[in-house]
Amino acid sequence: MIGRTNVTPALAAEMGLSADEFARVEAILGRTPNLTELGIFSAMWSEHCSYKSSKVWLKTLPTTGPRVICGPGENAGVVDIGDGDAVVFKIESHNHPSFIEPYQGAATGVGGILRDVFTMGARPIAILDALRFGSPDHPKTRHLIGGVVSGIGGYGNCVGVPTVGGETQFHPSYNGNILVNAMCVGIARADRIFYSAASGAGNSVIYVGAKTGRDGIHGATMASAEFGEGSDEKRPTVQVGDPFTEKLLIEACLELMAGDSIVAIQDMGAAGLTSSAVEMAGKGGLGIELDLDRVPVREERMSPYEIMLSESQERMLMVLAPGSEDEARRVFEKWELDFAVIGRVTETGRLILKMHGETAADIPLDPLVGQAPMYERPWQPTPAEAEIDAAALPARDPLACLAKLIACPDLASKRWIWEQYDQLVLGNTVRRPGGDAAVVRVHDGPKALALTTDSNPRYCRADPARGGAQAVAESWRNLTATGATPLAITDNMNFGNPERPEIMGQFVGVIEGMRAACTALDYPVVSGNVSLYNETSGAAILPTPVVGGVGLLADAGKSVGLGLAGHGNALVLIGETAGHLGCSLYLREIESDEGGPPPPVDLAAERRNGDFVRGQIAAGRAAACHDLAEGGLLVAIAEMAMAGGKGVTLDPAPPEMPAHAWWFGEDQGRYLIEAGDAEALLAAALAAGVPARRVGAVEGAALTLFGVGAISLTQLKSANEAWLPGYMAQT
Amino acid sequence: MKAAVVIFPGSNRERDVCLALRRATGHEPLCVWHRESELPAADLIVLPGGFAYGDYLRCGAMAAHSPIMREVKARSERGTPVLGICNGFQVLTEAGMLPGALLTNRTLNFICRDVHLRVETNQTIFTCGYAAGQTIRVPVAHHDGNYTADAATLDELEDRGLVAFRYCTPAGELDDDANVNGSARAIAGIYNRSRTVLGLMPHPENATDPLAGGTDGRGLFDGLVGALQ
After folding, report:
1. Cβ neighbours of residue A222 under 8 Å, at least 6 residues apart?
2. Which end of chain B, N or C, is surrounded by fewer C-beta atoms within 10 Å?
3. CB–CB of B63/B7 below 8 Å?
4. Residue of chain B nearest A560, judged by CA positions
5. ipTM above 0.90, yes or no
6. Which residues contact A617 (CB under 8 A, 6 or more apart)?
7. Is A306 in CB contact (< 8 Å) with chain B?
């Protein structure tokens, strides 16, 4: 194959390189690249690997803090959680492959994010999944949900890492581009973090894990292009996962990491051997020489191009300390995994590939990495939406509206999904899916982590800056509602085609909002992923920045859930209610209107209210706590009642606003606290300058609205639980 | 009580069961790697949950033929109690140490949730920590837990009192909805004829902690310690 394919600008364009980019490749090499070299440039300079459209904006996010050990740029972010422990976490998308082949696409998404975490020396302890599907009426949606959910479960359940949380929403904009974002959280010793930068010229480069096949070739490039008609034909670019091998790889790597054999380690993810070799040598400022004849392959006559661009799963590249080969070989043979010395670290500053005694590629690393294109793409701001006047909307029966809202696809119970995931393996899941945040203990406790993923894409479409700030604030609030102190986030930026100024404008706006919120809440970004070109035939998804948040609890036993705990307790609403209905779920589901601006996010009030709530939980004043999100106050109360199996009698809506604005407005920075001693809570709120008012009492087995009527918990639960299983059972 | 936990490549609940054993006994159980051909001296052998050998071919099928299983069988025949949980139960049926087989759940999906079990008898070393007829709440997490056997085998299990646990409602009643995976006669766990081997699909080890899953599974481990001490 070497030298046989005629490399032309047209072939480069097919691989996703523009004419300018191809000219830059020729200038760097001083000649026309061969096919393998072209493939390497195309993969490394793909949007997926180079972040060429997003980097200038991502750089503006806050990424440091007193607890941050490692921010973006490594396989995952690392944050100090005290006692010599560190939490290692990252979120990553597998959107394009999951649309083409939902089971394998989602499964390998989980596999990839697990590797990002254990590559850094951490044992994975939790997985979360943020999913977005098209309209339930779309003919592919049911098939995609079924495949994605069983793919996530099939992989996560087998490797023995609990899936503890996530979110699932529906919108027609995802009809042709579903989103599958998987987050993994692991625990490591803070002084035993492993990085990817190679060092020590002459050190051996080791390949471990599964063999290399012809699957997923050029997947990173596929993930950097729009879909058109016939995207199903891209199925061969989807990888195939083997969770059993991954489980062995986790155990083998962690066993070897307990010693001093490993100098550097990198998993083979997007762009496979290419990106792992380039990143290790590039970050170390060194060179690397690989003998491709030694790469374990599972198919015959693989070309250098195929070996370098394969995205076969469950593979790792390592640089070993001198004299460590025997120890490493012993560990990997124990776990029955392939182990091969395939090259060495050099001082040449070049990536040199040899095969069959010939040089298959010879590329200077510094320009391959350092001269990767970076674009400041033109963007235009998103026009503002007209305000919604709540008083102009018709008055309706709030309980009937509630019953409809909690049965709508976005709010309906996702039990059918999470019960297909092993939430319990490892024995540390204190709060399972279905609450504001999952709570998972560290080393059997008492210390624990609170974990959540959040995004409101409809807010982001209507006002990207508000939507970006809201996603961060909601994540922070969900952690706070369990009693945890929010530490840091990982972000998954899912957008359409950045070459369109209106899409780039969404990206810029969302980043601006996230930056403001992360700064105001001391909630830095420590890792993340960007997925662009989520479009099919020119129709883009809603802008979807998924925020994966991690918080710390000193004692898991002091965390609270959202389920109401005791009859006779009072429900207290924390935060200001203005009755904002723009972009609300009420407006969409009841009035069939997706318009209006999203609610404003007052970051100072957000911080003040959240710090107050956390303090009250720590002081033992909260029997339960829930943040208010989509659907507003009445939905949040119903969720607390259903989770705890206890009814609530509610005080009437205040006269100063329409009842639907009070019950269903989506004003931010609000929480509900169930308190045994409401007077003490209200007094503390007054002293702290935090708006608080009593809204009802825990009693009975129904949601009773004074002067309006009642709806029983049984009715509420069946409305909430029935939709998804019923939908999935249809054929 | 000294327990030996057998670890196959792909086992993933060995940590959970070790923790439950440690809570009951106050010390670490022994862990035995699947390639060993000898078991250490032990009062109890445990086959943990997971996906041994990836559950390729058929759940538990390859593990049932691993070298260590010959030794497990031999010890069992000499009277050492064996506890197989979830994948461990599947391995025991594949190895012929317990009758019947575990088919795919009737929903065709993996199921992870808390279920209620009725303790059918407490006249065994495994269940002497419970009252007969007691209802306990423990989680399941499996894809293939739908117990099946021919009618004669099922009748024999019933006649000899070898049904260990049945899926039931919180009030202890048998009910088709409570039969989470569609098992024949709602069977969640069974004994061998000498009641020295127990296989069950649910995870009592994940119900030994008040914060994580509750404590209804403790009776099994505490009972074993009492019986085998």
Report:
1. A96, A97, A234, A237
2. C
3. no
4. B211
5. yes
6. A482, A483, A558, A559, A560, A625
7. no
| B contacts of A427 (beta carbons < 8 Å) | 15-16, 19-20, 205-206, 209, 212-213
B77 tagged catalytic: no
Q: Half-sphere exposure (CA, 13 Å, Cβ side) for B32?
A: 25
Computed from CA positions of residues B176, A146, B11, B112, in that sequence, does the dihedral angle turn out positive or negative?
Answer: negative
What gap in Å lies between CA B205 and CA A477, rounded to an integer? 33
Residue A465 phi, psi dihedral angles, 5° rounding: -65, -45
Q: Cβ–Cβ contacts within 10 Å for residue A271, how many? A: 29
Q: What is the pLDDT of residues A305-356, one digit of tens each?
A: 999 999 999 999 999 999 999 999 999 999 999 999 999 999 999 999 999 9
Question: Using the beta-carbon criterion (under 8 Å), do A420 and B111 form an inter-chain contact?
Answer: yes
Query: What pLDDT is stored for residue B35 in this prediction?
Result: 84
Single-letter amino acid code for the residue at A210: A
Categorize the per-residue pLDDT at B58 as very low, low, confident or very high, splitting at 50, 70 and 90.
Answer: confident
Which one, of A51, A58, A53, A60, lies nearest residue A375 by Cα? Answer: A53
d(CA A250, CA A235): 28
A559 at the B interface (CB within 8 A)?
Answer: no
Known active-site residue B94: no
Q: Which residues contact B193 (CB under 8 A, 6 or more apart)?
A: B160, B162
With 0.90 as the threshold, say if the pTM is over it: yes
Question: Omega into A62 within 30° of 0, i.e. cis?
Answer: no
Question: A97-125: buried (b, 16+ CB within 10 Å) or exposed (e) per residue?
Answer: bbbbbbbbbbbbbbbbbbbbbbbbbbbbb
Nearest to B12 among A154, A160, A419 (CB): A160
User: What pLDDT score does A6 carry?
Assistant: 84
Judged by a CB distance cut-off of 8 A, whether residue A431 touches chain B is no
**How does pLDDT run across A533-570, given as a tens digit for each residue?**
999 988 999 999 999 999 999 999 999 999 999 999 99
Contacts of A493 (CB under 8 A, 6+ apart): A54, A507, A510, A528, A529, A530, A531, A532, A545
Query: What pLDDT does residue A537 have?
Result: 87
**What pLDDT is stored for residue A4 in this prediction?**
60
pLDDT at A240: 82
Distance CA A46, CA A271 (A): 9
Q: How confident is the model at residue B57, as a pLDDT? A: 82
Q: Residue A191: what are its φ and ψ, rounded to 5°?
A: -100, 15
Rounded distance between C-alpha atoms, residue A464 and residue A385, angstroms: 11
Phi, psi of B28 (to 5 degrees): -70, 135
Q: So what's the pLDDT on residue A2?
A: 44
Residue type, position A43, single letter? A
Tell me the two tokens of residue A470: 């809201």
Pull the structure tokens for residue A676: 């045994």
What angle do helix axes A398-405 and A632-644 make, rounded to 10 degrees?
70
Q: How far is A563 from chain B (nearest CA, A)?
A: 15
Low-confidence ranges of chain A (pLDDT < 50): 1-3
Interface check for A424 against chain B (CB to CB < 8 A): the answer is: yes
The two three-digit tokens of residue A677, written as one number: 């001693």
Q: Which two tokens stand for residue A274?
A: 């290419």
Closest listed residue to residue A507, CA positions, set A55, A73, A76: A55
Residue pair A24/A17 in contact (Cβ under 8 Å)? The answer is no
Six token digits for residue A232: 């199903």
- Per-residue tokens: A627: 């943040």
